Amino acid sequence: MDKTFIVLGSLLLFLGVAFGAFGAHILKSKLSADMLNVFETGVHYHMIHALGLLLVALFADKFPHAGVWIGWSGWSLFAGILLFSGSLYALSITGIRMLGIITPFGGVAFLIGWICLAVAALKGGA
Would you indicate the residue range of the signal peptide (predicted)? Predict the structure, then answer.
């Protein structure tokens, strides 16, 4: 499990840097200030939660008796990146405001991921 979240976290951090550069260098002249801000918010949360995936991977070893909670934490953070950041990327590029309906589901996934990590620490301590 820890290897999975290290790979996912690393690849998502790579994509976060690439998306940030894409926004700063290419989208800056193509999007309104409002939509560029939406895109940048997606990148911001993307990066924070990709780092969270690396933390989950590190804690998988530290809390071996909390495997299910660690798994829920990692997969929830991953889902949050896809739903929250992904919907903001799509909304900003396409201008389809209905995509904003998806964003809160990603936010809830982030919250679930962090709570599951806390529970893993409480339940999985050696």
Answer: none
